[in-house]
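Below is a filled-in request sheet from our internal design queue. Each sheet records the structural input a requester submitted and the sequence that came back. We keep these sheets so that new team members can see what a complete request looks like end to end.

REQUESTER: design group, bay 2
PRIORITY: normal
MODE: inverse folding
CHAIN LENGTH: 317
BACKBONE (tokenized):
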């Protein structure tokens, strides 16, 4: 039997209040710079794509001076109504590094080859405060990737939803949305115990899948789309196997490396666009069989495969 992990904040069985959130916030240390890593990279791409300024995230409390994070997206310079449009998001969970840098590398190294075939809107880092703290939650101890719902309590999620709605009103619907994530060892050692403590629940130990996998939409499954991405990524890194229950993170495997979540019901980022083709990637940077560089390249391969797939579908019409 695995020992029960007790999180160092809160009282077991009782949901957090303001005092516990303050304790959690005090533990978060800035470890890297959103301005240096992300905004500088976006500015370097301004000559090739349009930079969309879609808002700011501002956080402060009695113990912390106000921090302002400008939110930026990259958009195809010459948006063409007749082409399929693809939304790419990264950094919804700030600690998931390859999502952020995979999105930036895709734009830098691959976007140009799709210029005459697809329109792209790329949001490399949805959650900049969490990116700097290498944290899953935002300043308010809220998971942005459960907050993409009307009246969202997460500034990051609400801002992205506004951007997508405004963009679709102006340019029309997206054909696809790929949301770039990681599953790390800290999911089991930090985040899952933290969320159990925050919500006053008992932490139930789980496992971390070794390899890349995808989350398809339970309410709009697109198996061929998922398979195209899995095939492309398998040339870069290994695909996570199912466990002895034929599951990945407690969810039934429906195809090699693919599980289903109800995206809109759970408030997941990949559910915000209403696109026909949606997926959430998950790489495993802590695997002894993969490197951080492979994880970034796996994200790039996943995005390229997604765009290629919708371009192929558009040409069939």
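RETURNED SEQUENCE:
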């Amino acid at each position: 039997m695995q020992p029960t992990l007790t999180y160092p904040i809160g009282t077991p069985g009782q949901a957090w209040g303001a005092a516990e959130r303050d304790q959690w916030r005090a533990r978060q240390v800035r470890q890297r710079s959103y301005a240096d890593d992300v905004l500088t990279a976006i500015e370097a791409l301004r000559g090739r794509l349009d930079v969309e300024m879609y808002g700011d995230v501002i956080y402060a409390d009695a113990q912390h001076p106000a921090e302002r994070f400008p939110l930026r997206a990259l958009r195809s310079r010459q948006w063409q109504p007749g082409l399929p449009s693809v939304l790419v998001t990264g950094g919804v969970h700030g600690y998931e590094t390859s999502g952020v840098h995979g999105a930036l590398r895709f734009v830098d190294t691959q976007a140009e080859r799709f210029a005459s075939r697809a329109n792209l809107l790329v949001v490399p880092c949805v959650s900049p405060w969490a990116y700097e703290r290498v944290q899953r939650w935002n300043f308010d101890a809220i998971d942005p990737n459960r907050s993409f719902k009307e009246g969202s309590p997460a500034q990051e999620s609400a801002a992205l939803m506004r951007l997508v709605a405004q963009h679709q009103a102006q340019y029309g619907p997206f054909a696809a949305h790929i949301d770039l994530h990681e599953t790390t060892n800290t999911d089991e050692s930090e985040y899952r115990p933290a969320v159990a403590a925050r919500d006053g629940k008992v932490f139930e130990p789980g496992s971390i899948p070794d390899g890349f996998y995808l989350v398809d939409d339970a309410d709009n499954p697109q198996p061929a789309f998922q398979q195209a991405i899995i095939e492309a990524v398998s040339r870069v890194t290994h695909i996570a196997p199912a466990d002895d229950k034929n599951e990945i993170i407690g969810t039934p495997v429906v195809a090699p490396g693919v599980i289903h979540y109800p995206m809109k019901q759970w408030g997941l980022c990949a559910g915000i666009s209403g696109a026909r083709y949606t997926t959430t990637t998950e790489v495993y940077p802590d695997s002894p069989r993969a490197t951080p560089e492979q994880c970034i390249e796996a994200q790039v391969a996943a995005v390229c495969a997604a765009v290629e797939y919708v371009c192929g579908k558009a040409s069939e019409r």
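SHEET NOTES:
- The domain at 18-316 is CATH 3.40.630.10 (Aminopeptidase).
- The beta strands are 50-61, 64-75, 85-90, 119-123, 176-182, 213-217, 247-248, 251-255, 258-261, 277-283.
FILED BY: M.R.
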